[in-house]
Amino acid sequence: MQAFFDRWQRALPSPLTAEDRARGYRHELAFRQAEISDTRMFDRAAAGRAWFERTLPDQLTLGRPDQVAIVFGRRVNSRTPGRFHTKIFHKGVEPAIQVHYRASKVKQYFKEGRALRTETTVNDTRDFGIGRRLTQANWEALVAIGHHVNQRFLDHQLQACQCAPDATTLQRVVLPSIEDGLPAPGLRFGEPRTIALLACLCCSEHLFAGLTNRSLRELIAGLIPGYSPRQMTYDLRRLRRKRFIQRIPRTQRYELTSEGHRLAVFLTKTYTRIVNPSLAELAPSVPPDIAKPPPLAQAWRAFERALQARIDQAGIMA
Q: How many domains does the chain have?
């Protein structure tokens, strides 16, 4: 690329004089925008498209189930540059998803009805600590980050589809245990602080630059008012010992492990899509003479009646 530019630079007029060039002034190439893509072909195009469309709701509901958009990194206010959210849009009949991080984004869509296309577009290399000059080192670092983000995004989707743990793993997570000789307090399922912690781990923003004490704390504080830095330090220790996260070498940042992300998705889905809605249906706020109870509530009432009849037949006092 540099050789191509140099060849044309010699042929085209330049505002720099011979004297300017003798003094060391020259043109340098810089990154304006870079796109690194990944294309996956499916054996059966229809099945691939169905899978992609099935994953779309997860990208919006995981992490912040009460929000339409997923907020990235920190709270967005009038002084925050760029966009920090996830959105799904339709171009014609083809759905696509975009995850924005500062001036950069990752986009995914089903290309020409046959292939899953994932594209990371970097509009400001400094979002990832890379210089703007076109050098071999900067180029290799930028390409590596693009491939890393694409792969993490795909892993994020696959783990969300296949996230159910075995009984032993689930017990290790929710109960206190000893990991590498150190006590690891349990992440008790259903506890508001635990659910908020796991939900925020599911946010797509962690795919870009990992997470820190501050970035994760700001997300959790949006769900639990008064959540303190000391609580965040304690919870990070729990997450490390439960193998949800691991430290990125030579940094103060962490990244989700494959198992950690899978477990966070499973527990968050179970709580927000099964436990909460089911409890609401079992205790409806509208009297049955006004609105018909949902099927789950009807089945539960039938079970209660059958159980009470069995108790009465056995002569056992309630």
A: 2
* Per-residue CA distances from 39 to 93, 120, 150, 160, 161 (Å): 20, 12, 10, 20, 20
What is the rounded distance in angstroms from the CA atom of residue 49 to the CA atom of residue 112? 10
pTM: 0.56
Q: Are residues 217 and 236 in the same domain?
A: yes
Residues 122-152: tens digit of each pLDDT: 888 888 888 888 888 999 999 998 898 888 8
Task: Find, among 311, 172, 151, 290, the residue nearest to 242 by Cα.
Answer: 172
DSSP H or E stretch at residue 299 = helix 295-314
Within a domain: 284: no
Number of H helices and number of E strands within the chain? Answer: 12, 9
What digits encode the pLDDT tens for the residues 151-190?
A: 888 887 776 666 667 778 888 899 999 888 899 999 999 9
State whether 137 and 187 are in the same domain: no
**How many Å apart are CA 108 and CA 149, to the nearest integer?**
12
* H or E element that contains 117: strand 115-122
Cα–Cα distance for residue pair 154/139, rounded to 1 Å: 23
AA identity, residue 284: P
Residues 138 and 155 in one domain: yes
Given the DSSP bridges, would you call strands 94-101 and 104-111 parallel, antiparallel or unpaired? antiparallel
β-bridge partners, 101 = 104
Return d(Cα 108, Cα 96) in angstroms, integer.
Answer: 6
The residue segments making up the domain with residue 206 are 167-275
